[in-house]
């Protein structure tokens, strides 16, 4: 077969291309009107609900008082009514009252009051309605079944084109899917979610337990397809990386994002190389520290065709460090009287997940939370650029290693280039600049849920195929040292930038 013919065959025979086609097919079906109902995983115990409700009482008192002063009698009455229902402790009644309160909030004319009331109403309503029984309801279970069947069929077809036995895959897939669902359920708990213990951690823990304590059964091995799941999920991830959101939010977040990513990535990479880590490990750790944690590590691993074990190690470090940072950084901001805008920019540039940024920012102030989210969004957008640049550099680097010592040609580079990166970037550009805001808004949540499911399968697979002793002793502690050194530098550098950019030194303090 000629090289030209082999390249045409690669379009329907290689994992990279098939991940692109599968991701694009799913996106096309959703845009075309196919409704995929994503299973619900959020739940709170009665004790958690009671605690959150009590915390909300003081906020409702303030809202009722402010609403009365501003002539918003409807909102005032609903705030008093919701407060009274909360004191009785009936979750169903609280859920209903919270909905009425939110309806009144929408009709409120004062923008600040409207926003605060809407946020409190949603939070209380979610806590009241997220009953564990809803997760196990017949409707929700069937959502999971239909989603699993769809992913099974599409994956089996793609794998068959890669000459993988689809029947062997189909036997093991339900178990991998079930373990992924279990991880999402554990991560859906209100308290667990608050502390940033994401589904990724549970996927790894459950997978590692089975592979290292029980032992991975032979019949399950064909369904453990880490790379395939990751690449498909990354293509779909492009739909949630929207450049327009950053342009609307302002340029200051992007300025900080670029300076953080550039300086911290190269600094961490330099530190890792000084610690004698290989290029692959150094790139994974650098991306995780500088861009946005787990998502950046996933994208980087795919772009450089990284070792799943190193990806697992890196994500574990991210998740372990996330909890103390989530708790300590807001406290430090208050102790040292850091301005809210600066504190938010600091949190958004250092914490590795959007959820942790929102939680930590809320502990400081609404302004800190808003600024933090803007900065985090800015850094998230850079995932695509970083993955593309790394893919090009790594492809060229590997092509140069071809025996013979000749400079690699464009065809050699193209053959080695990870094609799913093109799908990821293409989808991001499509959703940012081509599709209407209405279409993007209508599909964003659905595609986000589907993407999460692919990533859950990927990290469950990583755990299932990883030897814990091997990963815990990997690099003799040097990767962890490199990560911590990079994260320490990130905390200091980002705080300096936050003061310069959001503290009024280089630009006027922005209004939020």
Please give the structural blueprint.
Elements: H1 3-10, H2 15-31, H3 46-69, H4 73-88, H5 91-106, H6 111-129, H7 132-135, H8 138-161, H9 166-187, H10 190-194, H11 199-214, H12 226-237, H13 243-249, H14 251-274, H15 279-292, H16 294-304, H17 308-335, H18 340-350, H19 354-364, H20 366-400, H21 410-416, H22 420-434, H23 437-464, H24 468-472, H25 478-502
Helix pairs in contact: 2-8, 2-12, 2-22, 2-23, 3-4, 3-6, 4-5, 5-6, 8-9, 9-11, 9-23, 11-23, 12-22, 12-23, 13-20, 14-15, 14-20, 14-25, 15-16, 15-17, 15-25, 16-17, 16-20, 17-19, 18-19, 18-20, 18-25, 19-20, 20-21, 20-22
Structural notes for this entry:
- The protein folds into three domains: 14-42 and 138-230, no CATH class; 46-129; 242-451 and 469-502, no CATH class.
- It is built from 25 helices and no strands.
- The protein has helices spanning 3-10, 15-31, 46-69, 73-88, 91-106, 111-129, 132-135, 138-161, 166-187, 190-194, 199-214, 226-237, 243-249, 251-274, 279-292, 294-304, 308-335, 340-350, 354-364, 366-400, 410-416, 420-434, 437-464, 468-472, 478-502.
- The longest helix has 35 residues, at 366-400.
């Amino acid at each position: 077969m000629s090289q030209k013919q082999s390249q045409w065959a690669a379009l329907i025979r290689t994992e990279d291309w098939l991940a692109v086609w599968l991701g694009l097919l799913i996106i096309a079906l959703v845009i075309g009107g196919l409704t995929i109902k994503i299973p619900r995983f959020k739940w709170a115990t009665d004790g958690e609900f009671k605690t959150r409700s009590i915390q909300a009482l003081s906020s409702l008192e303030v809202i009722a008082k402010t609403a009365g002063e501003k002539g918003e009698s409807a909102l005032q009455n609903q705030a008093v009514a919701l407060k009274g229902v909360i004191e009785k402790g009936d979750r169903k009644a609280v859920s209903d009252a919270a909905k009425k309160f939110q309806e009144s909030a929408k009709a409120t004319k004062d923008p600040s009051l409207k926003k605060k009331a809407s946020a409190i109403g949603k939070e209380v309503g979610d806590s009241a309605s997220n009953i564990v029984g809803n997760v196990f309801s017949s409707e929700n279970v069937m959502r999971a079944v239909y989603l699993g069947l769809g992913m099974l069929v599409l994956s089996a077809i793609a794998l068959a084109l890669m000459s993988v036995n689809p029947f062997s895959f189909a036997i093991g897939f339900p178990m991998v899917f079930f373990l992924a669902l279990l991880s999402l359920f554990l991560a859906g708990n209100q308290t667990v979610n608050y502390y940033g213990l994401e589904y990724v951690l549970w996927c790894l823990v459950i997978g590692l337990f089975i592979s290292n304590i029980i032992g991975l059964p032979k019949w399950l091995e064909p369904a453990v397809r880490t790379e395939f799941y990751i690449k498909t999920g990354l293509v779909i991830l492009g739909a949630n990386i929207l450049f327009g959101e950053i342009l609307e939010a302002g340029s200051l977040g992007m300025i900080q994002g670029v300076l953080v990513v550039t300086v911290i990535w190269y600094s961490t990479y330099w530190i890792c190389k000084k610690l004698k880590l290989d290029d692959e490990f150094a790139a994974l750790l650098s991306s995780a520290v500088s861009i946005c944690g787990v998502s950046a590590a996933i994208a980087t691993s795919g772009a450089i065709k990284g070792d799943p074990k190193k990806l697992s190690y890196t994500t574990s470090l991210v998740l372990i460090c996330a909890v103390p940072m989530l708790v300590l950084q807001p406290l430090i901001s208050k102790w040292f009287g850091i301005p809210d805008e600066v504190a938010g920019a600091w949190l958004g540039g250092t914490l590795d997940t959007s959820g942790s940024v929102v939680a930590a920012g809320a502990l400081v102030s609404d302004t800190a939370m808003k600024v933090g989210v803007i900065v985090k969004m800015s850094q998230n957008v850079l995932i695509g650029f970083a993955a593309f640049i790394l893919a090009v550099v790594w492809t060229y680097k590997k092509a140069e290693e071809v025996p013979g010592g000749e400079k690699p040609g464009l065809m050699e580079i193209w053959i080695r280039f990870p094609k799913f990166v093109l799908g990821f970037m293409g989808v991001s550009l499509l959703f940012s600049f081509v599709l209407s805001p209405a279409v993007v808004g209508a599909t964003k949540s659905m595609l986000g849920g589907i993407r999460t499911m692919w990533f859950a399968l990927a990290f469950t697979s990583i755990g299932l195929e990883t030897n814990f002793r091997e990963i815990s002793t990997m690099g003799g502690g040097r990767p962890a040292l490199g990560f911590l050194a990079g994260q320490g530098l990130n905390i200091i550098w980002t705080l300096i930038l936050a003061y310069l950019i959001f503290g009024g030194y280089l630009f006027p303090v922005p209004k939020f």
